[in-house]
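Quick one: DUF3307 domain-containing protein from Belliella kenyensis, structure tokens please.
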Amino acid sequence: MIIIIKLLLAHFLGDFALQPRSWVEQKEKRKAKSGKLYLHILIHGCIMMILLWDWSVWPMVLTLMLIHGVIDVLKLYAQKEKTKTSWFIIDQVLHLTSILAVWYIIYNPAIDLIYLFNKPMLWIYILAILIVSMVTGIMMQVFMHKWATHLEEGNGNSLKNAGKYIGILERLLVLTFIVIGRWEGVGFLLAAKSVFRFGDLKESKDRKLTEYILIGTLISFGIAIAVGLVLVQLQNIL
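--- reply ---
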């Protein structure tokens, strides 16, 4: 169990936390000719080796690196501007499926829930925190791309990356409240955000902006709540 958790952690670190937006843009522009593509694949391999800390697993790591590269190249050549959201989902499903498949083929674990969940929660918590902070933020950018293009550009008064960090903090707080069993904290946080946003929405008088903020808030809270519930269930099993 600990190996698959570390492999998933390595994937999310490499694909989200350690991949700048500039790399993504260069890959989309130059595709297989982009040096960032191969650097990205190499980083994935390095993260896996560091987390597993076992030289004997290099064949598995090399296999996952090659598969990751093939999937990324497929996405770069297949996706269009209108299909970026769909290909983002396909890309992540293929990555996660390949990781699970390679892990299963090499280790051939027994399909036993007791076996799968009898390890310490440390790596599961790390994975959950990474998902609700970095991964969800990037996923929301991709999912809400179409709506964002319909919004008029602001007057530049907003702080740079303020929305990104607000989202990370609110999801971490939601996750914390759920894990410690304080659901009222989630309600308080949602109410507080609504109060602060009310003035902006009232002044804007823009229905699209209101809908955009509401959709973003519900997606952000929904993912954080789902991850929190999974953690609680894992705690009960363990």
